[in-house]
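Sample entry (121 residues):
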Amino acid sequence: MSVESEKCSFDPKDVKELKIKTGVVKRLNKDFTSYEKEADTQANRVKKMKDDGADSYDIKKQEEVLSECKYMLPDTKNRLKKAVADLQCVIDRFKNKDEAEQLEEYKNAVDAIGKAGDVIS
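Predicted structure, serialized as tokens:
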């Protein structure tokens, strides 16, 4: 059985939605990781500035940047949780079909949820 005939046994709208929602989860997961790294980098920068005795105005501005970075983390995490739940609903439409695990889109979706699970747990 070819991949094309396997795809035809599914609603093309479901497959397209699966692909789109997988992309959303991957993007938000990447965003969250990036914000975490940026917050860590910024925290280290503020600490170094304080240790070096930098100007208090400069330190205050860098602390504001750090605060903005930290502010993005819970928002992004909440959006990721919602995106994972949405993707899981789409995946559930496929679970009763034996061929679902043969679809590349399905495998990618399951993988994306697994990777996002580390962040949202």
